[in-house]
Design goal:
Elements (H helix, E strand, L loop, with lengths): L2 H30 L5 H4 L22 E7 L3 H9 L12 H7 L21 E3 L11 E8 L3 E5 L1 H8 L7 E9 L5 E9 L3 H29 L20
Helix pairs in contact: 3-6
């Protein structure tokens, strides 16, 4: 092998090594905990008890924790969270992202009375049901308005119903009320992550989840000043927000 070729290979290997170090130590930790504060990355979280224990019986930890502050009470934010899903209100992405993923939603800019409330055991589609054989969905394993929503894979849902623990993918949302008003919306995910997920899916999941959190924030804050409706969850929602 010529010396020039060896040098080129060494340079390429060095560049890849530097990229992996920077990505692993700086970039990845930043987007895994985007928007979250230390108090939100540890401690108990919704769905923790449904997920399998870690090595040595340790409490399971989420793989990612992301959060936004919303200038609205949890009860004002919850209805937007409760109607997520491709057959419901979508995931509040920008239009170009929703169209790219194959949108199958009905007026995601509004709240729909028929989607309130979400119930345990209901499907939340990640893609339109006519795609991927109708298998691209998660199941609402825990619904605790206006505090928490926990989604799991269909297989894990069956295990949880039988008293076992989730072992695949778990997506957890928590709403925490802030002193003086407002809320923190915290999204956590946990599961056995393959190399393909880490390389290809994890960055995409960050971009989409971030867009979803910001989309919910924008909608909840826009509705905040509307007149009140009676009821524990919809008390702060305007009369013209529910179809």
């Amino acid at each position: 092998m010529k010396l020039s070729r060896r040098i080129a290979i060494l340079k390429a290997a060095g560049t890849i090594a530097v990229f992996l170090i920077v990505y692993s130590w700086i970039v990845r930790p930043a987007f895994l905990q985007w928007g979250a504060v230390p108090a939100e990355t540890g401690g108990p979280w919704p769905g923790q008890d449904l997920f399998r224990s870690g090595a040595g019986g340790a409490e399971p930890e989420p793989g990612s924790v992301r959060a936004v502050t919303i200038a609205a009470a949890p009860a004002q934010v919850w209805p937007w969270l409760a109607q997520i899903g491709q057959t419901r209100g979508g995931f509040y992405f920008d239009d170009w992202i929703a169209n790219l993923l194959g949108r199958d939603t009905v007026n995601p800019a509004r709240l729909h009375r028929e989607w309130q409330p979400l119930r345990s055991g209901e499907r939340v589609y990640l893609a339109p049901p006519h795609r991927f054989g109708g298998r691209a969905y998660l199941v609402a394993a825990r619904v605790d308005p206006p505090k928490a929503l926990v989604l799991v894979s269909p297989r894990d849902w069956l295990a949880i119903r039988d008293g076992a623990k989730a072992r695949g993918f778990l997506w957890s949302f928590e709403l925490r009320e802030l002193p003086g008003g407002g809320a923190r919306l915290i999204a956590r995910s946990a599961g056995d992550l393959s190399l393909a997920w880490l390389v290809f899916c994890e960055p995409a999941h960050f971009l989409l989840e971030r867009a979803m959190l910001l989309g919910i924030r924008q909608r909840a804050e826009t509705m905040r000043a509307r007149p009140a409706l009676p009821g524990p969850v919809h008390r702060a929602l305007g009369r013209d927000t529910l179809n």
